[in-house]
Write a structure and sequence with these properties.
By secondary structure, this protein is an alpha+beta fold. Helices cover 17% and strands 39% of the residues. It is built from ten helices and 38 strands. The strands form ten sheets. The chain has an eight-stranded mixed sheet with strand order 5-4-9-2-1-10-13-12. An eight-stranded mixed sheet has the order 27-28-26-25-32-36-35-34, covered by helices on one side. Helix 6 packs across helix 7.
């Protein structure tokens, strides 16, 4: 009996045995049900490194779906390409009482390309399956085997990867030859690794967890890695797409990337080099030279994702990007480096975990799987500058909130080093608005309003800039909740200097803005910048309060009132000062003019969970002030 056939035979036996299991929902411990959409009855992950270019995954899973919100968590998605092969998959479906109602195999999976809609080339496909069942609860029990032709990256162990999942039992076993060494990092694990050996003499590392409860959703929670159970594993020696290497720290990993993935890929056509020299002739400031080169790159290229083989980590040749005028983040950063190099400007190719949520490289644990995007660093003396190379519109030196304020890996000739991208602090993320409105006796509003956006708020209107004027007018009416709004004129401008600013100027009118009721004249004092619904109350909160982004909004609105009116009630005055934010709203009436001022500053950071109720009360007070109505009498 061959080994492959033996493995398949054992899997069939195992699937048959799983049918003997009793997956009746009534057997789930009652304390695992609160807040859960699914309960993982059992999950066994076995990873075996057979050789540097041969890693086998054997996963066995049984999951009970309690309601429709759990369907996505039970969705089976198996990604594959020429380097990651699906060997087999089979499973069974049970009803609420543990009775088998269906079975499935690989032929029942939908096979699709996993190409993103922004990708030009991508060789990954996905097979996915979810039973067509609408009667809850139900249970899926399945197992599959994968083969990966690399040993650089291993899947993390995350027994409760979602807060909506409870776990009855989960285990993870990593097996390898005695001379294959790994590093691992445990977070929130109930018990440490058990290290031993199996009957074949393989070194084994085993983690187990049981009775992990689902979490009640809590607004303003930190990243889930801080409170969910996980184990991350990295090799000391590895092979990836035929390229071997080793690392135990970020310096060594960055050195391998520089030497094996990036070196000798920045050759440019002679005519391009000559153009760069001509473009920068007469510019003495290296930063201004870099700005001219960056803007040339933006005007010449556009972004298209490319994810094929080692292309998932290795950039296009700069020569090819120059010829084709497109590339992915890796290719465009490498190309920009080459252009800068032609002007004798050094730069670093940097790996970052991108997204609105700030997630840094783990400073104490190096691994290849912690980044998903590439940006460029220009280490000018006392003026380190960062570039996002995939956008044709973003200003030179501006990152925005997609990659700001996090640790990234810079790959340099001397090796990797962790660097921190700029932080856009709350005080600098400014939205400043000033409006002059007139309200006549009929309650009609007319006037002009100017708003500037700086820092991370610079691109608040980015989605509008390229739209036609008619579309801009339609879309801006959704920004400002003014009934019967008519936009008479709208101008949007962007200053892409070293301190970028977006400016919005709008001239508007609105009928029936103010109402007259039995001699009382009333209207909403703030109809241009209202806070949303406050976060809901959470009893017995378990997580600290985390605010990802800070900002400052300053509004001043002047209303010229109909002649002879004065306030019928006490003027608005609210002042709040908390560790996480400040708010002040005031109004004054003098000489027929009402002046409304609003200042809201939210300060990003992590705060004690004991402050959560203060946060709820803070936003409740802001919302109430934002909906204050002015009552006037003649």
């Amino acid at each position: 009996m061959t080994r492959v056939f033996a493995v398949f035979y054992l899997m069939v036996l195992s699937i048959g045995a799983s049918a003997q299991q009793n997956y009746a929902v009534s057997l789930i411990p009652k304390d695992l049900l609160p807040y859960a959409s699914v309960v993982i009855r059992n999950k066994e992950v076995n990873v075996e490194v057979k050789d540097l270019d041969n890693t086998a995954y054997h996963i066995k899973m049984a999951i009970t779906v309690l309601n429709k919100n759990g369907d996505d968590l039970a969705h089976i998605a198996l990604f594959y390409n020429k380097s990651n092969v699906i060997k087999s998959v089979k499973g069974l479906v049970y009803d609420e009482f543990g009775k088998q109602i269906a079975k499935f195999s690989e032929s029942d999976f939908l096979d699709q390309s996993a190409v993103h809609d922004f990708s030009l080339f991508e060789d990954t496909r996905v097979k996915h399956y979810i039973p067509a069942i609408t009667q809850y609860p139900y249970t899926i029990a399945y197992e599959y085997e994968l083969k990966s032709k690399q040993s650089l990256e291993f899947e993390d162990w995350e027994p409760n990867s979602s807060g909506a999942a409870s776990v009855e039992k989960s285990s993870y076993t990593f097996s390898c030859k005695p001379d294959f060494n790994i590093r691992y990092q445990e977070r929130n694990v109930p018990s440490k690794a058990v290290i031993g050996a199996d009957k074949q003499g393989l070194k084994t590392y085993t983690w187990e967890a049981s009775n992990l409860k689902a979490f009640k959703p809590e607004p303003y929670s930190p990243d889930r890695e801080t409170y969910l159970t996980s184990v991350k594993i990295a090799p000391e020696k590895f092979e990836y797409e035929g390229i071997k290497g080793s690392f135990t720290n970020w310096q060594q990993l960055g050195k391998w990337q520089y030497d094996k993935l990036l070196a000798n890929r920045q050759t440019l056509p002679v005519e391009t080099i000559d153009h760069i020299k001509e473009l920068t002739a007469g510019i003495t400031d290296p930063k201004l030279k870099a700005k001219a080169i960056y803007e040339y790159m933006q005007s010449k290229t556009h972004y298209i994702s490319v994810q094929i083989g080692i292309g998932g980590y290795q950039p296009f040749l700069a020569f090819d990007v120059d010829k084709l005028n497109y590339g992915d983040c890796k290719g465009l950063v490498n190309y920009t480096q080459a252009l800068l190099k032609a002007a004798n400007i050094d730069s670093y190719y940097c790996v970052v975990n991108s997204g609105d949520r700030k997630v840094s490289m783990r400073s104490d644990f190096a691994s290849m799987d912690q980044g998903d995007h590439i940006i460029l660093c220009l280490p000018f003396k006392n003026d380190t500058t960062w570039l996002e190379c995939t956008s044709q519109r973003i200003p030179f030196g501006y990152l925005g909130d997609f990659t700001d304020d996090r640790l990234v890996l810079a790959c340099t000739p001397d090796g990797g080093k962790l660097m921190h991208t700029p932080k856009y602090a709350a005080a600098g993320n400014l939205q400043v608005r000033k409006a002059n409105f007139t309200i006549n006796e009929k309650g009609e509003l007319a006037g002009e309003m100017a708003t500037t956006f700086r820092g991370a708020q610079y691109d608040n209107r980015e989605y509008l800039i390229e739209e036609a004027r008619v579309e801009q007018n339609k879309m801006i009416q959704k920004v400002y909740p003014i009934n019967n709004l008519t936009v008479k004129n709208l101008e949007l401008k962007q200053d892409k200097g070293l301190q970028p600013v977006t400016t919005e100027n709008i001239r508007l009118e609105a009928t029936e803005y103010a109402a007259n009721d039995n001699g009382k004249f009333y209207f909403a004092i703030n109809s241009v910048n209202r806070a949303g619904e406050p976060p809901h109350d959470v009893r017995n909160r378990r997580n600290d309060v985390y605010i990802n982004d800070g900002y400052t909004d300053d509004d001043e609105i002047s209303y010229t009132l109909p002649t002879g009116y004065h306030s019928f009630k006490s003027p608005l005055f609210v002042s709040l000062d908390k560790p996480f934010g400040k708010f002040r709203a005031t109004m004054t009436i003098k000489d027929g003019r009402l002046i409304y001022k609003r200042h809201l500053q939210v300060i990003d950071g992590t705060y004690s969970k004991d402050l959560y109720q203060d946060l709820v009360d803070f936003y409740q007070a802001v919302q109430e002030a934002d909906h204050y109505s002015v009552y006037l009498v003649k």
